[in-house]
Write a structure and sequence with these properties.
The chain is an alpha+beta fold. It contains 3 helices and 7 strands, in the order H-H-E-E-E-E-E-E-E-H. The protein has a 4-stranded antiparallel sheet, with no helix packed on it. A 3-stranded antiparallel sheet has the order 3-4-5, with no helix packed on it. A hairpin with a 2-residue loop joins strand 6 and strand 7.
Amino acid sequence: MRTTFDFAPLWRSTIGFDHLADLVDSTLRQTNEDNYPPYNIERSSEDHYRITLAVAGFGADDIAVTAEQNALTIEGRKPEKPAGEYLFQGIAARPFRRVFNLADYVQVKQASFQDGLLIIDLVREVPEAMKPRRIQIGGGASSSAQIEQKKAA
C-alpha cells in the first residue's frame, strides 16, 4: 500500500526543513523489506537512545559500526569458511547492512557486544548556542539613550 503525503501545509509555517520531505520520500521508496537482523530502538530519557541488534553468530570483529554526519551504518560480514554439510541451517549468517538516519546533534556514545546483541548508545547533545534563550526587549527611552551614547563616542 502506497501513501502519498502533501507537505504544502507544513511549508507554510516552517523554514529550512526541506530535507524532511526528502527523508520521508526516500524512506517510502525503499522496497527492501529485509528485516535482518532484528533490532529494537529504545528511548531511555529525553536525550538518550539505544539501538539493539540481534546478531547471533557474528562476533565483534565481524561487525563494523560507522557514524557519519546524520547517519549510523552497521554492517556485518562473516569470514568465509569451508562449507560443511548442514542437515538444517536456521542461524542466519548472511551479510547485512542497516542504516539509521540520525537527527541533528545525535551522537554515538558507545557500542558494545554482549550475549549476541550489539548495543549502541546514542545521546542528543545540543550546543549551548543552539538552545533557546530569552531575548530582552528594550524600553523606548532607555534604548534610545544607549544609541545616543554610542553615536557621541
